[in-house]
Design brief:
- The chain is α+β, with helices and mostly antiparallel strands and 119 residues long.
- The protein has a single domain (3-108), classed as Beta Polymerase, domain 2 (2-Layer Sandwich), CATH 3.30.460.
- It contains four helices and six strands, in the order αββαβββααβ.
- The chain has helices spanning 3-17, 47-65, 95-101, 103-106; strands at 21-27, 38-43, 71-73, 80-85, 88-93, 111-115.
- A six-stranded mixed β-sheet has the order 3-4-5-2-1-6.
- α1 packs antiparallel against α2 (47-65).
- The longest helix is centred in the middle third of the chain and has 19 residues, at 47-65.
- The chain is globular.
- The N and C termini lie far apart (27 Å).
Length: 119
């Protein structure tokens, strides 16, 4: 398994650890001129849950994939936090913000993988 796939797996585990929901992995590798190879999109129900998911992703990615984000934006109000792991961009949304921006629709050409919620 290559480094990017391991990183995505660890990001997914970090999201699930804090009960993040509706995880979508968008594979952009077959689309030209994209800023990264994968998007991981998920949501938390409150700003505090969004922040907890961000911290959990950082921890899982560091310990499991030896990777740190080069940038984390949006923590101030935690409605939409973007984490930049070079080949992988992670987006953690509040539900209403996610619905408004609808990234999955913007990247409709991407191969989307829905990860079932853990209950």
């Amino acid at each position: 398994m290559n480094e990017t796939k391991i990183l995505i797996e660890k990001i997914k585990e970090g999201i699930q650890e804090k009960k993040g929901k509706n995880i979508i992995i968008a594979d952009l590798t077959n689309i030209e001129d994209t800023i990264c190879k994968y998007f991981v999109i998920c949501q938390g129900n409150s700003p505090s849950q969004v922040s907890a998911i961000v911290d959990s992703i950082k921890e899982f990615a560091r310990e499991g994939a030896n990777s740190k984000p080069s940038a984390v934006d949006g923590l101030r109000n935690a409605e939409w936090v973007a984490m930049d792991y070079a080949d992988v961009l992670v987006h953690i949304f509040l539900p209403e913000t996610r619905a408004f921006y609808n990234l999955e629709h913007l990247w409709a050409d991407a191969k989307l993988t829905q990860i079932p919620d853990l209950d």
